[in-house]
Write a structure and sequence with these properties.
Shape: globular
Strand content: 15-25%
CATH topology of the largest domain: Glutamine Phosphoribosylpyrophosphate, subunit 1, domain 1
Helix content: 25-40%
Structural class: alpha/beta
Number of domains: 4
Number of helices: 25
Oligomer: single chain
CATH architecture of the largest domain: 4-Layer Sandwich
Largest sheet: 6 strands, antiparallel
């Protein structure tokens, strides 16, 4: 795990070395154990290393072929590297997973990406082909951004260091509009018009003239040829966890009293691996520590409880670590801090379990879509929507005749933070969300899972997990977010989904079955209280300042209306927090970015 950086230029010079050194310094938190720098005729590559696999110098980057023709900087973990060594007869020295990449590239080119099992973002400089290639894993667990500058192409693992190279970065209207709708930017969006993200499941290649081509890592990555049974699901889960446990440092496990993290604790015990379970007491009055302690004890793991109420300094550090604005992520930031305080640099997380196993409450709403379609036919939904007008805006939208009648539409609605009327008041230039097409009638759990994977997992959970765990130099591993496991899980019952009870039955653990039958549990923060009188209240109060940078990009009247509605209890804390988090993120940037001056740029 690390931070990677580079400059690709037709006109090499000392400026490129200076830029990469600067990027390495800015990404030191991603890799405090080692720093690497490589310079070629038309490229400079850099890396900061967090040593988790192969703690020797064999993990030093950049990795280079024996003949010096291919150099690679790599962020992530390749869990099947030993298998690839055997399959392709690779002779790369050392045990480090990333060391195989230059030789594998020589053998396969871009076809190698589909054979990698794990999480990755990488840059490959090939002096023979005279190309540079950037690539990200199928789910986009690891980030990678690039920027065109007069001297050439600049790349980095994080967007903030690249923004430092732009005199006054401009906010992308499209990304800002997406944030206002969903509380996070899109999976493949950058906050700034000058900076681009390498797409998840994609690669981009530039030739010597910096002409660009692109492709996908895997075609139809989550398609399974046939419905899998519970035995296959159990085996696939154990295999994924076993691969994610490969490490040369002790592992931690983020343990709540819920099923996903409990299943990880069970799997570690089944595989004969002891882990340190970490539970954070968020001070919300509903601590999960007792339930987590029982799970850890039952499966034979050590258990640590950490307090996580932040102070002003910690809140400021949270916003400084925020790469893209997000209403989420504070829980990951606090939990990762607790893991780091225990001296652990790698941890397992249950992130992705709800998407793969149909665990969100929205999956239960799918059964009502046929009823809503029938109501549309007899105009009953007009009356139903009218009953909720002025109350629950999401429910009124769902019940109305123009509401979603497909899994994707339902997924988009349930993930909304601000509705179209509120966004119009904040950003009159933002076009409303397109209405779902009448032809879209897929109401399956599989379609909703894909929607959640693309939008919430890819746009919110994974970017936040990377940014806020790496801020504490902790590698977060996500066994549920594994292509082979996901293929099996999503194929068990595409129409209804596996469900948490089905998953517990597949695992066959008596301890997990009652958890699956209970209410959904997860790490919980007392956000509303913290915003009103607690450690987040100064950030909330800052939104009201006439100098608040938020007021330079959004209509102050719309801002004040939402904040007043929250203070009076007329709207949810998440809406007020979406504005607070955006303002605090803007404040943490120097200089503060400006809004892109093309009113149509956000809607193309």
């Amino acid at each position: 795990m690390c931070g990677i950086a580079g400059v690709i230029t037709p006109h090499p010079g000392g400026e490129s070395l200076t830029t990469v050194r600067r990027l390495n310094v800015r990404q030191h938190h991603r890799g405090p154990d080692d720093t690497g720098l490589w310079s070629g005729a038309n490229a400079v590559l850099g890396q900061t290393r967090l040593a988790v696999m192969d703690l020797t110098d064999g993990g030093h980057q950049p990795f280079t072929t024996a003949d010096g023709s291919v150099s690679v900087v790599f962020n992530g973990e390749i869990y099947n590297h030993d298998e690839l060594r055997r399959t392709h007869g690779l002779t790369s020295p050392g045990r480090c997973d990333g060391a195989i990449l230059p030789e594998l590239w020589q053998r396969l080119g871009t076809a190698m990406f589909a054979e990698l099992r794990g999480m990755f973002a990488m840059a490959i400089y090939d002096t023979v082909r005279r190309t540079v290639t950037l690539a990200r894993d199928t789910f986009g667990v690891k980030p990678l951004y690039w920027l065109r500058m007069p001297e050439g192409l600049v790349l980095a693992s994080e967007v903030r260091p690249l923004a430092d190279l732009v005199p006054r970065p401009r906010l992308s209207r499209a990304a800002l509009r997406h944030y206002l709708m969903f509380g996070a930017m899109g999976r493949d969006q950058s906050p700034f018009t000058e900076i681009q993200s390498v797409p998840a499941n994609g690669w981009i290649q530039w030739d010597a003239n910096l002409s660009r081509t692109a492709g996908v890592v895997r075609a139809d990555p989550l398609v399974h040829p046939a419905g899998a049974g519970h035995g296959q699901l159990r085996a696939a889960f154990l295999e994924s966890v076993s691969l994610h446990l490969l490490s040369d440092v002790p592992m931690a496990l983020l343990l709540s009293s819920g099923l996903d993290s409990g299943a990880l604790a069970w799997a570690c015990a089944e595989l004969g691996t002891d882990v340190t379970c970490v539970t954070v007491d968020m001070g919300s009055g509903t601590s999960e520590s007792p339930g987590a302690a029982r799970l850890a004890r039952r499966f034979g793991h050590d258990h640590e409880v950490a307090s996580a109420t932040p102070d002003a300094e910690l809140v400021a550090r949270y916003f400084a670590a925020m790469q893209r604005p997000s209403v989420d992520g504070l829980n990951v930031f606090l939990v990762s801090r607790a893991v780091a305080a225990l001296g652990r640099r790698a941890a397992l997380s249950g992130t992705g379990g709800d998407e793969m196993l149909a665990g969100y409450p929205s999956f239960k709403l799918l059964r009502y879509l046929p009823l809503l379609r029938a109501g549309d036919a007899v105009h009953a939904t007009h009356l139903a929507a009218g009953l909720y007008r002025g109350g629950n805006a999401k429910l009124a939208n769902l019940l109305g005749p123009a509401g979603p009648r497909s899994s994707d539409g339902l997924g988009r609605l349930t993930r909304r933070v601000l509705m179209d009327e509120q966004i119009r008041a904040l950003a009159p230039w933002a076009a409303p969300e397109p209405r779902p097409g009448a032809a879209d009638r897929d109401g399956s759990a599989g379609a909703l899972a894909q929607s959640e994977i693309d939008r919430y997992l890819g746009g919110t959970l994974l970017p936040d997990t990377d940014a806020f765990s790496m801020a504490w130099s902790v590698e977060m591993r996500v066994p549920f977010v594994d292509v082979e496991f996901a293929r099996v899980a999503l194929s068990v019952d595409r129409r209804r989904g596996v469900g948490k009870r089905g998953f517990a039955r597949a695992l066959g653990s008596a301890e997990l079955d009652p958890i699956a039958r209970g209410r959904k549990k997860s790490f919980h923060l007392p956000m509303d209280g913290w915003m009103r009188t607690g450690p987040l209240s100064p950030a909330v109060q800052a939104v009201a300042s006439p100098e608040a940078p938020l007021r330079a990009i959004l209509d102050p009247r719309g801002i004040d209306e939402i904040m007043a509605a929250w203070r009076s209890g007329r709207t949810a804390w998440s809406r007020a927090w979406s504005l607070t988090a955006l303002n605090s993120w803007l404040t943490s940037l120097d200089p503060a970015p400006v809004l892109h001056d093309d009113p149509g740029a956000g809607d193309r």
